[in-house]
Amino acid sequence: MEKKWTMPWEERPEGCQDVMWRYSQNPVIGRYHIPTSNSIFNSAVVPFGEGFAGVFRCDNRAVQMNIFAGFSRDGIHWEIEHEPIRFQPGNTEMIESEYKYDPRVCWIEDRYWITWCNGYYGPTIGIAYTFDFKEFFQCENAFLPFNRNGVLFPEKINGKFAMLSRPSDSGHTPFGDIYISYSPDMKYWGEHRHVMGPTPFPVSAWQCTKIGAGSVPFLTEEGWLMFYHGVITTCNGFRYSMGAAILDKDDPSKVLYRTQPYLLAPAALYELTGDVPNVVFPCAALHDGDRVAVYYGAADTVVGMAFGYLSEIIEFTKKNSVI
Ligand code: BMA
């Protein structure tokens, strides 16, 4: 299919030595972007038609967490619906949902799949699909509670759908490893395998408490590249940063490389301060040739973008790897 969209992009600022750099106009989505929002963050975007579509986490002013569809021509300026997504039954009867947050969006074969943290007697992974970002069909939850950070692969692996997730507890989980699970039909999930866990404190402390999958992985010459978040527990609470991992093409439970240093950590004012300070939380990545753009939630309040060259990110991840 002919590509009609243009990648949002800004060159590395002069004098910047970092592998990935922030967009100078960050945040791209402010906390009051729609009339009812308290905060808009941890959101996912994909190419759609001649532009982009996305699913956005908007907490309202009662701090009820829900997900909203949005559209953009350039990937930077967004129109977000003022009403949350209303789901119709997909592959099952309607499942109740007390809250919805941290969506990811993934094109597989013929439609867009949305995964999110779904409140069903505690957080678990909700799944839905859409063809047009107007009608949405909710499917079975993937797992029992408690689980977060469900991220699908954009193609079947050995004939099955594949999803990363992070088993949790019901609260602000002080632990967390990434697992992979497979499904023949997007309804029944199994063959759960461990992918990766937190690192030892002296080795890479920014990811020593817990980690979680971030963006939908995409295939590179080296394997699946995925941006993920890592957390350290400080005397002031959790601090969330972003790293990258490269997973084996045919068996993504095998981690080939993983960044020992972070690629992006809270340092800009809008990452350091907000409803939850010190959070960089990647949920989506666009790529086009050698260009990569990551969308991330900042301080649980706004959405930011960061850019990088794929070849440099891969080289850095290989050279500075800890498994
Ligand atoms: C996690 C989730 C995320 C959030 C992060 C930092 O447990 O709730 O939505 O960004 O904590 O508060």
Beta-strand segment tally: 22
Structural category? mainly beta
Q: Give the amount of beta strand, in percent.
A: over 45%
Radius of gyration: 18 Å
- CATH level 4 superfamily: Glycosyl hydrolase domain, family 43
CATH class: Mainly Beta
- Compute the number of helices: 2
Q: State the CATH topology.
A: Tachylectin-2, Chain A
Major β-sheet annotation: 5 strands, mixed
Please tell me the total number of domains.
1
Mean pLDDT: 98
Silhouette: globular
CATH architecture: 5 Propeller
Low-confidence stretches: none
Task: Describe this protein's structure.
This protein has 323 residues and is mainly beta. It has 2 helices and 22 strands. The protein has one domain (20-319): 5 Propeller (Tachylectin-2, Chain A).
Helices and strands in order, then pairings?
Layout: E1 20-22, E2 37-48, E3 51-60, E4 65-72, E5 79-80, E6 87-89, E7 100-108, E8 111-119, E9 123-130, E10 136-138, E11 147-152, E12 161-167, E13 178-183, E14 190-196, E15 210-213, E16 218-220, E17 223-234, E18 237-247, E19 255-258, H1 269-272, E20 280-288, E21 291-298, E22 302-309, H2 310-319
Parallel strand pairs: 6-10
Antiparallel strand pairs: 1-22, 2-3, 3-4, 4-5, 7-8, 8-9, 9-10, 11-12, 12-13, 13-14, 15-17, 16-17, 17-18, 18-19, 20-21, 21-22
The structure holds beta-D-mannopyranose.
